[in-house]
Amino acid sequence: MKALIFSLLIMQAHATTFLLVRHGETDWNRDKIWQGDSDLPLNETGKSQIIELANALKDVPFDHCITSSYKRAKETASILTKLDPKIDPRLRERGSRNFEGVLIGTHGNEVKKEYEDSALVSERVFAALDEAATAYPDTKILVTTHGGIIKQTLVDILNLDCPVKEIKVPNASAIQISHKNGKWQVDHLYGVTLP
User: I want to staple 67 with a disulfide (CB 3.0 to 4.6 A). Which of 49, 63, 85, 191 is the partner?
Assistant: First the structure.
Protein backbone atom coordinates (compact mmCIF):
# COMPACT_ATOMS: atom_id res chain seq x y z
CA MET A 1 0.00 0.00 0.00
CA LYS A 2 2.96 2.37 0.44
CA ALA A 3 3.42 2.36 -3.34
CA LEU A 4 -0.23 3.33 -3.73
CA ILE A 5 0.07 6.31 -1.42
CA PHE A 6 3.41 7.43 -2.86
CA SER A 7 2.28 7.34 -6.48
CA LEU A 8 -0.95 9.18 -5.72
CA LEU A 9 0.81 11.89 -3.74
CA ILE A 10 3.23 12.53 -6.61
CA MET A 11 0.89 13.46 -9.42
CA GLN A 12 2.11 13.93 -12.97
CA ALA A 13 2.36 17.54 -14.10
CA HIS A 14 -0.57 18.67 -16.21
CA ALA A 15 -2.40 15.36 -15.89
CA THR A 16 -5.66 14.31 -14.31
CA THR A 17 -5.08 11.25 -12.15
CA PHE A 18 -7.84 8.74 -11.45
CA LEU A 19 -7.90 5.93 -8.90
CA LEU A 20 -10.53 3.42 -10.02
CA VAL A 21 -11.48 1.24 -7.06
CA ARG A 22 -13.58 -1.90 -7.26
CA HIS A 23 -16.23 -1.98 -4.55
CA GLY A 24 -15.87 -4.26 -1.53
CA GLU A 25 -17.36 -7.74 -1.38
CA THR A 26 -21.09 -8.45 -1.57
CA ASP A 27 -22.83 -11.70 -0.65
CA TRP A 28 -23.07 -12.59 -4.35
CA ASN A 29 -19.33 -11.95 -4.85
CA ARG A 30 -18.64 -14.29 -1.94
CA ASP A 31 -20.99 -16.95 -3.33
CA LYS A 32 -19.66 -16.56 -6.93
CA ILE A 33 -22.99 -15.47 -8.38
CA TRP A 34 -23.33 -13.21 -11.46
CA GLN A 35 -24.18 -9.74 -10.17
CA GLY A 36 -24.23 -7.38 -13.17
CA ASP A 37 -27.07 -4.88 -12.83
CA SER A 38 -28.35 -6.35 -9.55
CA ASP A 39 -28.06 -3.62 -6.93
CA LEU A 40 -26.62 -5.29 -3.83
CA PRO A 41 -24.98 -3.71 -0.77
CA LEU A 42 -21.57 -4.54 0.69
CA ASN A 43 -21.46 -7.35 3.22
CA GLU A 44 -19.43 -7.12 6.45
CA THR A 45 -16.30 -8.47 4.75
CA GLY A 46 -16.72 -5.87 1.99
CA LYS A 47 -17.02 -3.06 4.51
CA SER A 48 -13.87 -4.29 6.28
CA GLN A 49 -11.98 -4.45 2.97
CA ILE A 50 -12.86 -0.85 2.17
CA ILE A 51 -12.09 0.38 5.69
CA GLU A 52 -8.61 -1.14 5.30
CA LEU A 53 -8.20 0.61 1.94
CA ALA A 54 -9.48 3.89 3.43
CA ASN A 55 -6.79 3.70 6.11
CA ALA A 56 -4.14 3.28 3.42
CA LEU A 57 -5.54 6.25 1.47
CA LYS A 58 -6.13 8.61 4.41
CA ASP A 59 -3.25 10.91 3.43
CA VAL A 60 -4.15 11.12 -0.26
CA PRO A 61 -5.83 14.47 -0.99
CA PHE A 62 -8.48 13.55 -3.56
CA ASP A 63 -10.12 16.57 -5.17
CA HIS A 64 -13.24 14.83 -6.46
CA CYS A 65 -15.12 11.56 -6.16
CA ILE A 66 -17.31 9.92 -8.79
CA THR A 67 -19.25 6.72 -8.18
CA SER A 68 -21.42 4.23 -9.98
CA SER A 69 -25.10 4.46 -9.12
CA TYR A 70 -25.18 1.01 -7.45
CA LYS A 71 -25.34 0.62 -3.66
CA ARG A 72 -22.08 -1.33 -3.43
CA ALA A 73 -20.12 1.41 -5.20
CA LYS A 74 -21.83 4.26 -3.32
CA GLU A 75 -21.13 2.55 0.01
CA THR A 76 -17.50 2.11 -1.02
CA ALA A 77 -17.23 5.83 -1.82
CA SER A 78 -18.83 6.84 1.49
CA ILE A 79 -16.25 4.77 3.40
CA LEU A 80 -13.24 5.93 1.35
CA THR A 81 -13.82 9.67 1.37
CA LYS A 82 -15.66 12.53 3.02
CA LEU A 83 -16.12 14.16 -0.39
CA ASP A 84 -19.66 14.34 -1.73
CA PRO A 85 -19.53 11.90 -4.66
CA LYS A 86 -20.99 12.65 -8.04
CA ILE A 87 -23.17 9.69 -9.04
CA ASP A 88 -22.65 8.65 -12.64
CA PRO A 89 -24.71 5.70 -13.93
CA ARG A 90 -22.31 5.32 -16.88
CA LEU A 91 -19.90 3.71 -14.40
CA ARG A 92 -22.34 0.93 -13.50
CA GLU A 93 -21.33 -2.70 -13.94
CA ARG A 94 -21.52 -4.41 -17.31
CA GLY A 95 -24.95 -5.99 -17.61
CA SER A 96 -25.19 -9.77 -17.84
CA ARG A 97 -28.91 -9.94 -18.61
CA ASN A 98 -30.41 -13.39 -18.01
CA PHE A 99 -27.42 -14.65 -16.04
CA GLU A 100 -27.72 -12.29 -13.09
CA GLY A 101 -28.35 -14.32 -9.96
CA VAL A 102 -26.87 -17.48 -11.56
CA LEU A 103 -23.82 -19.30 -10.23
CA ILE A 104 -20.69 -18.31 -12.18
CA GLY A 105 -19.34 -21.08 -14.40
CA THR A 106 -22.60 -22.95 -14.89
CA HIS A 107 -23.34 -21.70 -18.42
CA GLY A 108 -19.99 -21.56 -20.21
CA ASN A 109 -19.92 -19.60 -23.47
CA GLU A 110 -23.63 -18.76 -23.32
CA VAL A 111 -22.79 -15.94 -20.90
CA LYS A 112 -20.66 -14.08 -23.45
CA LYS A 113 -23.71 -13.74 -25.71
CA GLU A 114 -25.71 -12.27 -22.84
CA TYR A 115 -23.12 -9.71 -21.75
CA GLU A 116 -23.47 -6.04 -22.56
CA ASP A 117 -21.35 -5.40 -25.67
CA SER A 118 -17.75 -4.37 -24.91
CA ALA A 119 -17.89 -1.45 -27.36
CA LEU A 120 -20.96 -0.05 -25.60
CA VAL A 121 -19.34 -0.45 -22.19
CA SER A 122 -16.19 1.33 -23.41
CA GLU A 123 -18.23 4.13 -24.96
CA ARG A 124 -20.18 4.94 -21.80
CA VAL A 125 -17.24 4.53 -19.41
CA PHE A 126 -14.83 6.67 -21.41
CA ALA A 127 -17.53 9.28 -21.95
CA ALA A 128 -17.73 9.58 -18.15
CA LEU A 129 -13.95 9.58 -17.66
CA ASP A 130 -13.28 12.03 -20.52
CA GLU A 131 -15.95 14.35 -19.15
CA ALA A 132 -14.33 14.26 -15.68
CA ALA A 133 -10.83 14.83 -17.10
CA THR A 134 -12.11 17.90 -18.97
CA ALA A 135 -14.16 19.25 -16.05
CA TYR A 136 -11.44 18.68 -13.43
CA PRO A 137 -8.02 19.06 -15.11
CA ASP A 138 -4.83 18.47 -13.09
CA THR A 139 -6.65 16.92 -10.13
CA LYS A 140 -6.85 13.58 -8.29
CA ILE A 141 -10.20 11.84 -8.77
CA LEU A 142 -11.43 8.83 -6.81
CA VAL A 143 -13.79 6.61 -8.83
CA THR A 144 -15.69 3.77 -7.17
CA THR A 145 -16.92 1.26 -9.70
CA HIS A 146 -16.97 -2.43 -10.64
CA GLY A 147 -14.68 -5.24 -11.73
CA GLY A 148 -16.05 -5.45 -15.25
CA ILE A 149 -15.56 -1.72 -15.75
CA ILE A 150 -11.96 -1.81 -14.52
CA LYS A 151 -11.22 -4.81 -16.77
CA GLN A 152 -12.67 -3.10 -19.85
CA THR A 153 -10.75 0.11 -19.03
CA LEU A 154 -7.49 -1.86 -18.93
CA VAL A 155 -8.28 -3.68 -22.19
CA ASP A 156 -8.97 -0.36 -23.92
CA ILE A 157 -6.04 1.68 -22.62
CA LEU A 158 -3.45 -1.08 -22.94
CA ASN A 159 -4.97 -2.44 -26.16
CA LEU A 160 -4.98 -5.94 -24.66
CA ASP A 161 -5.88 -8.88 -26.86
CA CYS A 162 -7.35 -11.18 -24.22
CA PRO A 163 -10.76 -12.05 -22.81
CA VAL A 164 -11.63 -9.73 -19.93
CA LYS A 165 -12.23 -12.76 -17.70
CA GLU A 166 -8.46 -13.39 -17.71
CA ILE A 167 -7.86 -10.07 -15.92
CA LYS A 168 -8.18 -10.50 -12.14
CA VAL A 169 -9.75 -7.59 -10.26
CA PRO A 170 -10.46 -8.64 -6.66
CA ASN A 171 -12.83 -6.69 -4.44
CA ALA A 172 -11.20 -3.51 -3.05
CA SER A 173 -8.41 -3.58 -5.66
CA ALA A 174 -7.62 -0.56 -7.80
CA ILE A 175 -5.92 0.85 -10.86
CA GLN A 176 -4.39 4.27 -11.26
CA ILE A 177 -4.80 5.85 -14.68
CA SER A 178 -4.07 9.33 -15.93
CA HIS A 179 -5.23 11.60 -18.72
CA LYS A 180 -2.66 13.93 -20.24
CA ASN A 181 -2.67 15.77 -23.58
CA GLY A 182 -5.80 13.93 -24.67
CA LYS A 183 -4.33 10.46 -24.01
CA TRP A 184 -4.97 7.82 -21.37
CA GLN A 185 -2.30 5.75 -19.70
CA VAL A 186 -2.21 3.14 -16.94
CA ASP A 187 0.13 4.21 -14.16
CA HIS A 188 -0.21 1.44 -11.56
CA LEU A 189 -2.13 -1.72 -10.69
CA TYR A 190 -2.97 -2.39 -7.04
CA GLY A 191 -4.02 -6.00 -6.49
CA VAL A 192 -5.07 -6.33 -10.15
CA THR A 193 -3.30 -8.92 -12.31
CA LEU A 194 -3.06 -9.13 -16.08
CA PRO A 195 -2.74 -12.42 -18.00
Answer: 85
Strand-pair partners of 140: 17
Amino acid at 110: E
List 142's β-bridge partners, or say none. 19, 65
* Closest by CA position to 102, among listed 28, 165, 24: 28
- Give Cα 158 to chain centroid, integer Å: 16
Q: Which domains does the chain have, with CATH numbers?
A: 2-190 (3.40.50.1240)
Name the residue among 156, 150, 188, 153 with its Cα closest to residue 168. 150
Please state the pTM of the whole predicted model. 0.91
Rounded Cα distance, 36 and 96, in Å? 5
**One pLDDT digit (tens) per residue for the chain, 195 residues:** 555 655 665 566 689 999 999 999 999 999 988 787 889 999 999 999 999 999 999 989 999 999 999 999 999 999 999 999 999 999 999 876 666 666 666 655 554 555 688 899 999 999 999 999 999 999 999 999 999 999 999 999 999 998 888 999 999 999 999 999 999 999 999 999 999
Burial class (CB in 10 A: 0-12, 13-18, 19+), 117: exposed
